Amino acid sequence: MTGIDGIxxxxxxxxxxxxxxxxxxxxxxxxxxxxxxxxxxxLASVRADRGVFxxxxxxxxxxxxxxxxxxxxxxxxxxxxxxxLEYKVGVEAENQYTIFRIDNDYFELNNV
Length: 112
Known about the structure:
Layout: E1 6-9, E2 17-23, H1 33-45, E3 51-55, H2 61-70, E4 72-75, H3 77-87, H4 104-107
Parallel strand pairs: 2-3, 3-4
Antiparallel strand pairs: 1-2
């Protein structure tokens, strides 16, 4: 399907479907309103009621405004990174550290 990069079926029967558009752009190359409108057109062509547009960069204010009015969820590079870390997708732990502090309650003296 033109303009749709992925499909997520949220239930086994496929009655709740989310369509995805993904763009791997440099930080200074923002997704604009026309890009989101094009995705909206692709959603309309498959009679979709929900869509998620993901980019490694960010969105212009016009793109954000249009998406909000059409019920399209936008995920920018920062949010994508946060989601990747939270759900451990495409990342792996390299080092982990345990930092200890003194438990003063343990050493507290009783007044006698």
